[in-house]
Every structure is written in structure tokens, then in C-alpha cells.
Amino acid sequence: LKITHMAVGDGGGVLPTPDAKQTALVNEKRRAALNMLYIDPQNSSQIIAEQVIPENEGGWWIREVGLFDESGALIAVGNCPESYKPQLAEGSGRTQTVRMVLITSSTDNITLKIDPAVVLATRKYVDDK
């Protein structure tokens, strides 16, 4: 299983209840390659997937999040606290990091790879390095 993309959506205006039978988000607003995929250094049974949404994208609410494999199949779905993602044209654009945590019984046999050609870094990350 290769997890390659994360999508966010607005849930069609309401906070959706995730369903194991879902094959898509209720109302997807953005899908992009993962920025990071890593094992939580504080808890080795958690895998963290991360996407950075640039300041020039937005104008919608984030209420749902999903992870997709290389074939485009939805392999994990969840809801999240409602958050408005403004875009720069609205006068208050911001870079927003969205993370989804997957809990596994063991990460011993999991190999995590990320394509360095699609990684975005937040200003804070660059400044800290």
C-alpha cells in the first residue's frame, strides 16, 4: 500500500460522520501529494500524514480529510474540527498544515517514502532549520 495523496473537503456544509464504506469525501475541495509521511517519534504505533496548503489556495471550510493510495482509492477518512481556509485574495491568506494520524498495531513492517519533488516547507520549518 502506497499512500500518496491527501484531500480535504467541506463536508457539504456540515461536519460529516466518517463511514468505512466511503469511496470519496462528501465534498472534496483540494487533493495534493503528501508533504510528509512519518512515524510519530512519541508513539511508534502512529503514522502521521501531512499536507501543506499554500496561502493562495482556499476560500472554503475544512471539515473532512482523506488519504488516497497510488491508484486514487480512498484508504482512510476522518472528520476534523471546522477550520476556514482563507485565500490570499481575501486579505488574510495563510499557509495551513493539515495532519491525519493513522493508528496501527505495529509499524515494524511499514516503509515510508515521500517524493522530495513535491514537498512544501512552511516558513517556520525553514526558519527553524
TrEMBL record:
| Phage tail fibre protein N-terminal domain segment(s) | 1-124
The UniProt entry's coiled-coil ranges are none
Please give the name of this protein. Phage tail protein
